[in-house]
Amino acid sequence: GGFDKELELTLMQAGEVIEYLPDTFIYDEKVSKTAHFKRQRLRWISAQYHYLGRFFLPAIKALFQGGRISFVDKTFQLLLLPRLVLVGTAVLGTLFSLFLVNKILTTAWLSALTIVILAYGIATPSRFYQQDTLKALLHLPRAFFQLIWELRGIRQANQRFIHTPH
After folding, report:
1. Quick check: 47 and 1 in contact, CB under 8 A?
2. What are phi and psi of 67, to 5 degrees?
3. What is the pLDDT of residues 79-88, one digit of tens each?
4. Which pairs count as long-range contacts for 68-76, CB under 8 Å and 24+ apart, including other chains?
5. For helices 3-13 and 69-77, what crossing angle results, to 10°?
6. What does pTM read for this prediction?
7. CB 112 within 8 A of CB 6
8. Contact (CB, 8 A) for 3 and 52
């Protein structure tokens, strides 16, 4: 899995420039069933960390040799937690810190949660602020816990192809 990430990183490592066309639309079918969503995300996360492991040291080397900053940046982006895991972790961290009654810890987690919510709020186009989006947000806790549960199989996920029906 993740051949697109491998191709992108390999091209960038070789010094090729990848241009992004802002007025181009990409139509991608989205999965609608929870089971398919879990498998798809597991495949994506597995590929993300697989290619992080493969390209991290070459990216560090490129960083100190100068040049190929796009390659270094793209590789370091693989360090980021997937969005759903980031939000879920910030919510859980905040809730747990409230039970520990530690002001510093609670402030830190609450700050992190606020920053994540603000960042996603700013990045979300206004046309998505509607009732359907709110309904979808209500499904996030379940999706988060199911994804975390599925992460148990992440080691095997890159060993075999995980098909996602459309």
Report:
1. yes
2. 75, 175
3. 988 888 899 9
4. 68/12, 68/13, 68/15, 70/12, 70/17, 70/18, 71/9, 71/12, 71/13, 71/15, 74/8, 74/9, 74/12, 75/9
5. 150
6. 0.71
7. no
8. no
Amino acid at 83: R
What is the maximum span of the chain, computed from C-alpha positions, in angstroms? 52
Per residue in 67-107, pLDDT tens?
Answer: 789 999 999 999 988 888 899 999 999 999 999 888 999 99
Q: Which residues of 16-34 are buried (b: 16+ CB within 10 A; e: fewer)?
A: eeeeeeeeeeeeeeeeeee
